Amino acid sequence: MAIVIIRQDNKTQEWKNALLAVDSSIEVYAYEEDYDSNDIDMALIWKHPEGSLTQFPNLKCIASNGAGVDFIFEDKTAPIHLPITRIVDSYLAADMSEHVLALILAYLKNIEHYKVDQFKKIWKPIQYKRIADFNIGILGLGTLGQALANDLVKFGFKVQGWSNSRKKIDNVESFEGQAELSKFLSTTEVLVCLLPLTDETYGILNKKLFKQLPKGAYVINVARGGHLVDNDLIEMLDNEHLSGASLDVYHKEPLVKHHPFWEHSKVHMTPHYASVSDTKFVVPQILENYRRLQKNEPLLNLVSKSKGY
Ligand code: NAP
After folding, report:
1. Ligand 1: nearest atom to the Cα of 200
2. Mean pLDDT of the chain
3. Fold of 2-89+278-294
4. What distance in angstroms lies between residue 309's CA and the mean position of ligand 1's atoms?
5. What is the pTM of this model?
6. pLDDT at res. 6
7. CATH of 91-269, one of 3.10.129.10, 3.30.390.10, 3.40.50.720, 3.30.565.10
8. Burial 160-180 (b: 16+ CB within 10 A, else e)
9. How remote is the C-alpha of 138 from its chain's centroid?
10. Interval between CA 141 and ligand 1 midpoint (Å)
11. From the alpha carbon of 142, which atom of ligand 1 is closest?
12. Residue-level pLDDT at 264
């Protein structure tokens, strides 16, 4: 019985140390280490190399190190008949909420614009917008979307959200499914995407959708690059239907140097770092699942294979 950590960044040792700090009795290995692959029953993964999950004959669970699981379904060799779990964590949600709040406030108060003017030594007041006048629409009212909705309401924004199933959240108007998408979009002035990336949501941020937003709307994509049709966004920014966009995620990360987003004056970019799992907070839920796995008890934060999230 052992855990293998499979990641392609430089955080494997940090995760290993964090797991052992909480429970020094477990066996945990980095993918690259020497161990008997027959012993591995849990794979703790983040953007693993394709094919790597096929090497463990006794694997019983695939645990994503983050909230998203799209990278697991993208690996056509992954044994997705096994239980797949993901991270559900209030700190991850709070970090996302703070990131999006910062972007929205910067947009309302023209902070980016003034930074550009500052470098050009231009003194030019620009009419600011007020929180109370603004309708924020959130695509995806799951763990992260709901936390954001609640925080935006506390700040005084008008908030609405769209999801597969209708939600009951105080002071948040909830829209459900394809049939209500157009109505939701028609009154959304700042659109925030917090959907999981699935076959249904791939490319959802496209020209057809943008055209249904009011002229001058602002778009924030903090979910996955695959949600956005890049050229459609550029076209809608250039023809001034959209006033700007903030992006944290991209089709290919890091974004290639020749991509037009880098130099587009209406695109604000961050390097996929809106919110990341903090080992301090999420290791306990992983170890709890590891314990449950040994005892054959139901796992926490299971992903639905049929829904893909
Ligand atoms: P979640 O709890 O699974 O919530 C997903 C929400 O999207 C749910 O409300 C779901 O509706 C809705 N949804 C899914 N497919 C839909 C569809 N086809 N039509 C309408 N609504 C749909 O996910 P989460 O934990 O909030 O995370 C959301 C995503 O954020 C992750 O998958 C990940 O890609 C991204 N993320 C990004 C970062 C970053 O740093 N940029 C960090 C963490 C996560 P129901 O509630 O009705 O099922």
Report:
1. 18
2. 98
3. Rossmann fold (3.40.50)
4. 7
5. 0.98
6. 98
7. 3.40.50.720
8. bbbbeeebeeeebbbbbeeee
9. 13
10. 7
11. 4
12. 98
